[in-house]
Amino acid sequence: MSTYKSELLRLLEQRGYIHQITDAEGLDALAARQVVPGYIGFDATAPSLHVGSLVQIMMLRRLQQAGHKPIVVMGGGTTKVGDPSGKDESRKMLTDDDIDANIAGIRKVFERLLTFGDGPTDAVMVNNDEWLSQLGYIELLRDVGPHFTVNRMLTFDSVKLRLDREQPLTFLEFNYMILQAYDFRELAQRYDCRLQMGGSDQWGNIVNGMELARRMDGRELFGLTTPLLTTADGAKMGKTAAGAVWLNDAQLPSYDFWQYWRNVDDRDVGRFLRLFTDLPLDEIARLEALEGADINQAKTVLANEVTALVRGREAAETAEKTAAETFAGGGAGEDLPSLEVGAEGMRIGAVLTGLGFCSSGKEAKRKLAENAVKLDGETVTDPGYLVEVPKGGETKLSLGKKKHAIIRR
């Protein structure tokens, strides 16, 4: 039974978002008494975020559902530097145009999940390049530098782990934590932002920002982190053998996105329903109690609800219909991935890599040797097999039981 007074912390606790809070009692009292503006930062390194960022996006949604104000901070400035957390190497440098295009792509998902506007609890999206690019180097060193010690910065996991692995850490990246701390202070001044949220790997960066605001302005700020999100088998959320599970449909078809959720481990269903859907908790309890083959009902609900939130209800319905036609009826749903081949046909290995079902010709050969590849239900094992399709016709390709596609001409 929760002891929290505020709807915000009760909601976050019941849904499984809370790992650490800097001052739970203080934040609880504040959230019970007034609207709390809270932020999470997202760097713009690609035109879409992936599933690994979805728990953070949902945290901002929960903040708004509990009557508070979400601030989405796009790291137009920090993307130019690079967060060393969990990285073995420096990220490649992007141009301003690249970063702006990425932010435009990323915004689409937030517009589905948050309500933007000018009201007291409406979400806002800001770009930290607005203030970071205006900072003079001498001014930053003089005003902010004295509040950081190199001794302490070297103890942060993002720095320590890289050094322990004897991987180079540039001076550029070493500054990232200072810039993120400065963001929190700047947002507190501009928007009266009182709360920064993030993954557990961001704890040190969040505390840095709180301390900087306290020392420079005497402000009391709060931090809250989520548990490190891994699947039941220990894999990092959002990564698959085929690559990242992107949130935008331009980077990943809705059918593949739906399938990712439909195929989660049985042990993850309840947790993911709490984190990634708006279903009532009693309904989630009923679904996660299902056993045997019935748990597949819960997985379909999970896939439908997450896809509807991120891609829209129509995308979820189309994906479910495609799956039903493909798996149950042996047909070929309209939402399946497809590949066009010319009159001269295409080798089976090239088809598998062209669809993204295999990452290389070597992997394609292995799958063929494992009898995992079928064309219209017939097993194909010859790496030299030529896939030919009559003009206007189509062929269904299957890799294992879960990957299907249409080959057309």
UniProtKB/TrEMBL annotation:
Keywords from the UniProt entry: Aminoacyl-tRNA synthetase, ATP-binding, Cytoplasm, Ligase, Nucleotide-binding, Protein biosynthesis, RNA-binding
Keyword Ligase found: yes
GO molecular function: tyrosine-tRNA ligase activity
Binding locations of ATP: 239
Superkingdom classification of source: Bacteria
EC identifiers of the protein: 6.1.1.1
Signal peptide residue numbers: none
Domain RNA-binding S4: 346-388
Record field: catalytic activity: tRNA(Tyr) + L-tyrosine + ATP = L-tyrosyl-tRNA(Tyr) + AMP + diphosphate + H(+)
Subcellular location: Cytoplasm
Binding site for L-tyrosine: 39, 176, 180
Family: Belongs to the class-I aminoacyl-tRNA synthetase family. TyrS type 1 subfamily.
PANTHER family: TYROSINE--TRNA LIGASE, MITOCHONDRIAL, TYROSYL-TRNA SYNTHETASE
Assembly and binders: Homodimer.
Protein name: Tyrosine--tRNA ligase
Lineage of the organism: Bacteria, Pseudomonadati, Pseudomonadota, Alphaproteobacteria, Sphingomonadales
Gene name of the encoded protein: tyrS
